[in-house]
Amino acid sequence: QVQLVESGGGSVQAGGSLRLSCAAFGYNWGPYCMGWFRQAPGKEREGVASIDADDSTDYADSVKGRFTISRDKAENTLYLQMNSVKSEDTAMYYCAARWIYNSDYGVCGTTDYMEYWGKGTLVTISS
């Protein structure tokens, strides 16, 4: 069975940098889509960044120019490089993936159609 395990969360000063990792286990071929999502207390879960099978990436407007999603296929690991972090970036960050492609599911990173989720890693931005 597929397992996704996030790491790299913690506390960082506003303006600083942090790198999150997602190690994937238990699959035999690459997923169609992988992405990072986050949820702050009292707020709806939102997509942060995604990458599809053609290496096309997409970012939420709030993180464009600051965050970069990437993956190391040989190590089965997904990354999120977070630069110039802000207080509003404080949230639980989740790694997710799906293998199914269906044109009705929308673009890569559509929250409701992700099949597998990690348990999350907490990021706290201080000032």
Describe this structure in words.
The chain has 127 residues and is mainly β. 0% of the residues lie in helices and 49% in strands. The chain has no helices and eleven strands. The relative contact order is 0.32. The mean pLDDT is 94.
H-E order: EEEEEEEEEEE
Structural class assignment: mainly beta
Rg (C-alpha, Å): 14 Å
DSSP, total strands:
11
Strand proportion, as a percent range, falls in over 45%
Level of helix content?
A: under 10%
Q: What is the overall number of helices?
A: 0
List the main descriptive attributes of the protein structure presented here.
single chain; 127 residues; mainly beta; seven-stranded mixed beta sheet; four-stranded antiparallel beta sheet; globular
Summarize the structure.
The protein has 127 residues and is mostly beta strands.
Write the layout of secondary structure elements.
Layout: E1 3-7, E2 10-13, E3 18-25, E4 33-39, E5 46-52, E6 57-59, E7 67-72, E8 77-82, E9 91-98, E10 116-117, E11 121-126
Parallel strand pairs: 2-11
Antiparallel strand pairs: 1-3, 3-8, 4-5, 4-9, 5-6, 7-8, 9-10, 9-11
